[in-house]
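Per your request, structure below.
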């Protein structure tokens, strides 16, 4: 997930927060050697309770690590900035979960980023 932070921090400041998070997610997914490898990893992650629990724990740390980057990208100042940035980050990760679970359920058919975009569109309404 370090790639997520690196990708977001390297994007120009005018790139919106949702677009930056999407670019970061795409960069992380691109680290897989193949679709088959990605599918197998997501299968293990979603179908093995201990791996899933470990992922959730790591993800909470990643979310906190991303917080300053997302707050800055949102032009956040003191006050409610932290809660808004946390909500955006948590939503992006929830959409990745929903997309990857759907992708696994469909045996890797389609594009996981298309599913991610569909999930984001649903929550952004």
């Amino acid at each position: 997930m370090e790639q997520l932070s690196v990708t977001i921090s390297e994007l120009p400041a005018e790139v919106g927060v949702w677009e930056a998070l999407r670019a970061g997610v795409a960069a992380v997914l691109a680290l897989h050697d193949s679709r088959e490898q990605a599918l197998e990893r997501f299968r293990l992650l979603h179908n093995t309770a201990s791996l899933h629990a470990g992922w959730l724990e790591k993800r909470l740390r990643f979310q906190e690590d991303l917080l300053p980057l997302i707050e800055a990208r949102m032009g956040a100042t003191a006050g409610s900035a932290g809660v808004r940035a946390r909500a955006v980050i948590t939503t992006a990760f929830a959409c990745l979960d929903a997309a990857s679970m759907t992708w696994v359920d469909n045996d890797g058919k389609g594009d996981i980023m298309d599913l991610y975009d569909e999930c984001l569109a649903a929550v952004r309404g």
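Helices lie at 2-10, 17-29, 35-47, 49-73, 81-105, 112-124.

Regards,
D.
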